[in-house]
Every structure is written in structure tokens, then in C-alpha cells.
Specification:
By secondary structure, the protein is α+β, with helices and mostly antiparallel strands. Bound molecules: adenosine-5'-triphosphate and magnesium ion (MG). Adenosine-5'-triphosphate binds at residues 71, 74, 83-85, 88, 90, 197-200, 225-227, 229-230.
Length: 876
Amino acid sequence: MQWTGLNDLREKYLSFFESKNHTRMASASLVPQGDKSLLLINSGMAPLKKFFLGQATPPNKRVTTCQKCIRTPDIESVGKTARHGTYFEMLGNFSFGDYFKTEAIEWAWEFLTKTLEIPADRLWITIFESDDEAEQIWENHIGIPHDRIIRLGKKDNFWEHGSGPCGPCSEIHFDRGEAYGPFESFEQASDCDRVIEIWNLVFSQFDSDGEGHYAEMKNKNIDTGMGLERLACVMQGVDNIFEVDTVQNIMKHISSIAGVEYKKDAKTDVSLRVITDHIRSTTLMVGDGILPSNEGRGYVLRRLLRRAARHGRLLGVKRPFLTEVCDTVINENKGAYPELAEKRDYIKKIISVEEEAFAKTIDKGTELLTGFIDTLKAENKTVLSGDDAFKLSDTYGFPIDLTVEMCEEMGFTVDRDRFTELAKEQRARAKADHAAKAGSSWADNSIKVDAPKTVFTGYTSMNEEGVSVLAIYKDGAEIQTAVEGDDVVIVLDKTPFYAESGGQVGDTGSIFTGSSVAAVEDTIKSEGHFLHIASITEGDLSKGDKVTAMVDKARRNSIMRNHTSAHLLQNALRKVLGDHVHQAGQLVNDKACRFDFNHFSAMTEQEIADVEQIVNASIMAAIPVTMEEMPIEEAKKLGAMALFGEKYGDTVRVVTAGDSIEFCGGTHVSNAAQIGLFKIVSESSVAAGVRRIEAVTGSGVLELLNGYKDTINKAAKAIKLANVTELPEKCAAMAAELKDKDKKLESLTQQMANAKAAALFDNAKEVSGVKLVSARMDGSAPDALRKLGDSVKDRNEAMIALFAGTNGEKGTFYCVCTKDAVSKGANAGAIVREIAAVTGGKGGGKPDSAMAGAGDIAKIDEALAKFESVVSGLIK
Ligand code: ATP
Ligand code: MG
């Protein structure tokens, strides 16, 4: 066998199976399409499940792929075993009811021993304990010695992931030789990574419901999976999958950033491998449109990124570095996955935003956790309480996995049960909160409609006569007749009402006969049935009635204007900001269009103006908007924009407006000119790397303008300005005038205070050669008192002044003593303290100036009256 690079191995495999009449299909996205049972694609067969289940027809009964996979359950093994990554590529050949065990085994053997020339005596075979058929093929057809075929139980050799196709399997293992330990038994040699599994041939013959029931499938299938990195590890004779050519380059990059040599220390090696793995997974995940968040896939991504960042810190890297490594990941993988290079800037930006945000969290969290640990040590405890762990996670965003990991490193454990309990409580609270906000939701009220699917005519019509009422529901139960005042759900055979989907709200309007009317407040969809949520406002309505269904046309027209403008907006954003812009959510109703998209920084005024201009140019050019159904492949050829992670059928609807081409099931204007005008109202941030634009169209713009006009008129009226065009200058002039007046007022106040002080000084009493001045100044805050006092402090005579100010319920004493007074024994601090005490207040300060708060302001006069006697006690 010869050293072969990872990229060559991939090609060799795929072309080998092409030579066996397989169709090569591209790797699917890591985000499962139309499969809610899986968070992330974890095997080659996962995205092909629909073919196995007969829900869709494959392009060929024989298919071969190299599939990107993420396996988070393996996270703990990563860096510790030789063979596990959270990210890896899986090579596979598949038979959909075509060939079965014999060919699968024969070709696997041929590929390994003939194409790759792996010596047969290095390979071991395992089979499911009761699969005699497989044993017979291996032994008699291929010629494998009997003792090299190991029978294993369900845990090892029965392949299933949740529900769906499953079956016995047969694995091919490679013996890496003496260097990895002795070979006492197959199990022992596997445990020490001497023998590693490279290929799993699954003979999928059952369909499992995930609850222990297995139904034999009509058409038996083959599904095989071989880890590309593992195969490369074998072919390159390296120790583990991180030393494989392309992967190693990533590790080398990390090594050089950290200044840590590989193979010097077992502990830093683990960190190097963990980062290598996690940066691969996260780069590929972001490339497939996943964004960091606190739930689902986004959480997996966040967790991997944060773990990588933290292992960077363990290696002593103090600055953000993942973005740099990300470049190497892209370079090493762009041959097989060119989209990575196209999205380079976007991927790097998302990762850097997350890494920087985490750096802040980690600093704060580590500080707190260290504090908690110190307390535990002092108290001789070893378990961090669930409450503390929850506080770290809830208040500071410090992830629980990290808390656990860091605690373990320091020899502590975490009360996870309590943590889980608290987290659960919080989720319940959030849910209740959400439900309360959303009101009673029909969507949750799972009505099972037993009727043919509704025919939707709303793309071309807003009014449908002579349609039949198929069913009426009240409080979730079917009824025959609804009477005036009833809140109901009405199902028709045919309807022009658009049901909420794709971010476009449901239609409103009315359903009526000659004698009865139902006001439709919303329309939603449930498995092909359109549910009109309505209340009967006149007469009564029965199952079987012939009715007219009429959409609120003005509202729907506004919705269509906003929806079409969302398409023009996305197109304009891509022109102004770049091709990384993708819709990340939208809400289109009659009031506005709200459009979320991937972009990493706030838009500038200029960018916003440019986008607005481009959209309005299309509107003014009156470009036609066309809607067409076509096979998905054709739509893709047209370059139609699809949503990340959205499930599409074989036939899709494509909406075209100039060079904006999108997959879309919504309703649209037929010509952009109908939009009238488009105006962006706001641009803001929703999450890291996601921006939101809110815009209005048509009469919405008019309303906005009228609103502005109204505000301006009101402002002008308030300042008695007849000509509104003079508003800016007038406001500027008024602001200047106000400032001027403030200054004048301030100086007048000062003058008055001085005059008051002068009058006080003239009437000052003398005690033992020291002049005493005291006054009560209602309505003066501490600042004013201080100013007044300061005018006394510098006088060239022995003088003590005591002022009491009140401001609402608060009272303040301020006492100053001139230098001469201080030299005679006066002490402002002592005076003010004693005086304030009379009111129950407190305070103090320096000998030359001191302030105190009054307690009961009703006692201020009483306190001031004591001034002379207090001073007498101090003066020598
Ligand atoms: P293991 O027991 O080694 O974890 P597995 O039984 O989970 O493997 P399968 O589910 O049969 O593996 O997947 C098929 C092939 O995919 C394996 O034979 C292996 O080559 C590869 N593979 C599985 N998990 C990983 C992983 N975490 N990292 C790299 N390759 C993997
Ligand atoms: Mg496994």
C-alpha cells in the first residue's frame, strides 16, 4: 500500500464506485433538510433517508457520496482517541433496493485490497451475531479465514440512529501493528486503538419506529460508511486522524500561533487536537449557514467554538486566533467544498464576532468561578452548587459544559441535577411568558382535519364564489352549525385566503352567504388544510353551505407590496454589501416588511441610502414580477436564491423581479411599480452577525411622511412659527438664546447671593472677636450653599458662617470658617455636626468647611438658634 493524500483518497473512492455504475452526488448541507429527527447530518445515509423510505426517488438506484458529518456525541473522545472527530467526511456507497450484501462486501474488499492495496492480513471483519448470510459471504465468497470474522452483538453491529432504516452491519477493521500494543484478543486490540474500525457496511433491511419495533422493508438497501480521515490515517501510516496531511496543516498553524510544539506533552497535544477538530467543524457549520445561538444547531456551534477558544487559552494564546486558523481550514478544504472560499469573509467574520464576545465572557466567568472554588476550598467542599453554576450560565453566559470542565480540571464536581432543575424552571418561565404574549395560539391547537386538502386560488384571485364549507371547528371540536358570536375555524374546499407561511402573515377578510357573515381574522395552514380563524358576525353558518370567500383586498395589496419589496431589498443588499447576504428571517404584513439577514456590521448611512435607491429604481422602472412553478433542478440552474436549511419539494415556485430570483411561495404584486415607493425606517442588530431592516412601502411611505409632517407642524406650532421651513434656523436660534439666558440667570443668581451675603455680613454678630453669620435659604440645593459659603471662606477676618438650605424634603447645613477663625479654635466640622444633630442629621468635614444633612427639616430653625452657643464653646 502506498501513501495517498486525503483528497486523492476521496476521488479514488468516488470514481471506484462510479465504475460500478453508481451516480456521484455532492455532499448535502450539514443542516438536515426536511428531517426534524436530526440536529445535524451525522452520516452519509442521513440526507438520503427519503430515498430509503421511498418518499422520494433517487437519481439512480446506486449512489456514491462523500458527506460532511458532525457527531457531537463523540466530543469527549476528540483529541483523546486516535479516530474520533466531531467533524469528519464519510465516504459511502448506497443501494436503494438494488444490490445487497454480496456486492457490497465484494466491492468493499476490492476497493481496499486491490485499489488501495491494503494487505488482506491486516484486515479484520466483524458481523452481527445472527447474520450467517454475511459470514458465509466473507468466508466462502471472499475467502476470509474463519477466525478473522468476529461475531458481535447489537451494540456494535446493528446500525440505527433514532428511527428510520436500520439493520445488521459488518465492519472492516485495520490492524495497525505491534507499535500500538499487543494483540491478545480482538476486543483488547480495539480498546488500545491498535485495531481501528474503518468501514461499516450496513445491510439495511428494517424500518424502525424508534421504539423497538422493526418492520422488514420490501426493498432491501445497502448503506456504507467509511471515515475519510480514518482511511487516510491508515494509508499515511500516521498515529491519528489529526496527523493526516490536510488536517495536520491546520494543527501546524495552531502550533505556530501558540508556540507549542506537537508531541512534546500529552496534555497540550490534546488541546492542539481539540482545537484542530473544533475549528474544522465550526468553519464547515458556519459555511452551511448555521449561526451561533443558544439553542439547537446554533448552540452546538457556539459550544464547539467556545471550547476551541478555551483550549487556545490553555495553550497560552491570549488573543483571538480562531479566525486565522479558519483561513487554513478553508484553504485545505476549498478543493472539495469551493463554497467555503466564496464565503470566506463571512465565515471569518461570524467566527471572530463569537470569539471576541466569548473572550469577554470567559474573563468574567473565570474570575467568578475561581472565587466560588476558593470558597469551596476554604469550606473543605468539593462540589460546586447547581445554583452557582446556574448563576454563571444565566447571568454571565458562562456555559455549563465549561464550568464542569474547568471544575474537573481543578478536582471539583458540579451539582448538575440542581443546575438542570434550575435551567428547566427557567425554560418553563420563558415558555409561559411567551405563551402569554402570543395569546391563545391556534397553531398549538392541533386540529385534525378529515377532508381533502384545500385548493388555494389566492395567487390570482382574492374573491372566490360558490365554495363549500367542509368543516367548522369550535374550541377544537368539529360542529355542524356555528351561530352569531361563535369563534370558529372554518375549512373550505377552495380559498383565496393566503395562510401564514414564509414570514408572510395570513389573510383576513370575510366568508359569507346571502344571510350570514364570518369575519376572518387570520388564516393558517395545517397539513395542507387552510384554517380560517373567524367569528360569526351575522346569521349562522353550517357545514356544506356554499359561501363566498373574500380577502380584505386593500390589506392584501399592502402585504404584497411589502413582500415583493423584501425580495428587491435582499437583491439590493447583496449588491451593496456582498454575496454573503442571505435572508435569516422575515416578517411581511400590511404595515411593513421586516427583513433579517447575515451581515457582520452596522450599515452606514451611505449603504442604507444606496440600497434604498436601488430598490426604488426597480420600482420606478416598473419591472414586471413573474411567478412560475418549475422543477427544483431548473430553479437551481436559474440561480434562484433558496433559504438556508429550508425544505423544498421537487417542484418549487420561483418569483422573478428583474435580477432578483427567489424560491418563494408568497403572494406578490405583478409589477414593481405597484409598490409605489420604498423607504427604510430602521437598521439594527438582532444577534451576532444578523442585522434587521424595517421598511415601508406604498401608502405606508405616505403615512410615514404624514407622520413626519405632523411632528414638524406640531413643533412649529409649539414655538409659534408660521413658516415651517424656518424651523431648523429658528430652533438653532432658540437654543442659542436659551443658553445665553441661562448664563445671565446664573450670574444674576450669583449677584443676588452676594448681595444677600453682604447684607448678612453687615449684620454679623461678634462673639469673642469672631463674626458670626447664619441664614436659612429655602429652595437652595447643597451646591448653591457651597457657592455662598466659599465667598466667605477667603475673607480677611475672623468669621464663621452657617447656612441651612432646604430643597423639598431635604435639608442641608453648610458651615465655613475663615483662616483667622480657625486659628481662634473654630472648627466647621464640629459645628456642623453638633448643629445637624439637633435635627437628627449627620455630617462633618474639615475645620474650614463642612457639610451635613438635616434630619427633620422642621427643626432647622431650632438648630440654627444654637449656633452662637456652639461657637462659644469652641473659641478660645
Ligand atoms: P466508532 O465505534 O469508532 O466510534 P462508529 O461505529 O460510531 O465508529 P459508524 O457509525 O459505523 O462508526 O460510522 C461509519 C464510519 O465513519 C466509521 O467506520 C468510521 O470510519 C467513521 N467515523 C465514525 N465516527 C467518526 C468520528 N467521530 N470521527 C471520524 N470518523 C468517524
Ligand atoms: Mg461512534
